[in-house]
């Protein structure tokens, strides 16, 4: 007898488009030595995955974990859509279990879209009224995806106009070697600036001359052109 997770998996397989899958494998850098090395795609658009997850809201957390362990990228993303929804609807105990299982399975949350679709909603939300120091541990992890989870999780705090954790994490990752971290940190700094330009600029004045160029470009993307150029030219 098939489980609900089996039904979801089979439906996703039937929705696959080989041509789109080939494109996705290039887009998400699945080649040897790239950040998504070895990932396998079915070729399904994200809105289709979201709609399917919505239809299967009766799925359990066990179902979502089973799907998260799939070799297929889109199945893991659908699992995370289910998990975020379960977390949102869950009681305190259920939220804690989902948070714990999420961090225990980061090795399956192994691309930027997977992290960005779930870390804020689960990790950030759960830690909002708790000790957040574990994010600093994750920020120092050797694992790229744990580091990205830490900074993206802080987006939840930013949206509540709490910026210090994002600034602390950004400083920890200031010299990270991965481009995906440069982009994520720059993005979060930009989100801080969208709510408090002086807060972002105080951080930039301390660090902009040494931060990776990509991180800086992302951070100042919305600045007036003259100010943006001043930062890029080191004239601030």
Tell me the fraction of residues in β-strands, as a range. Answer: under 5%
Give the overall pLDDT as a whole number: 96
Range of helix content: 55-70%
Report the span from N to C terminus: 66 Å
Radius of gyration, in Å, reads 19 Å
Backbone shape:
globular
Structural class: mainly alpha
* Strand element count: 0
Poorly predicted regions: none
SSE order, as H and E? HHHHHHHHHHHHHHHH
Sheet bearing the most strands, described? none
Distinct helical segment count: 16
Provide the fold topology.
Elements lengths: L3 H12 L2 H10 L18 H10 L5 H8 L4 H17 L2 H13 L7 H5 L2 H9 L5 H7 L4 H10 L1 H5 L4 H9 L6 H17 L1 H11 L5 H7 L5 H8 L4
Report on the architecture of this protein.
The chain is mostly helical and 236 residues long. Helix content is 67%, strand content 0%. It has 16 helices and no strands. Helix 4 (61-68) packs antiparallel against helix 5 and helix 5 packs antiparallel against helix 6. The longest helix is centred in the middle third of the chain and has 17 residues, at 73-89. The protein is globular, with a radius of gyration of 19 Å.
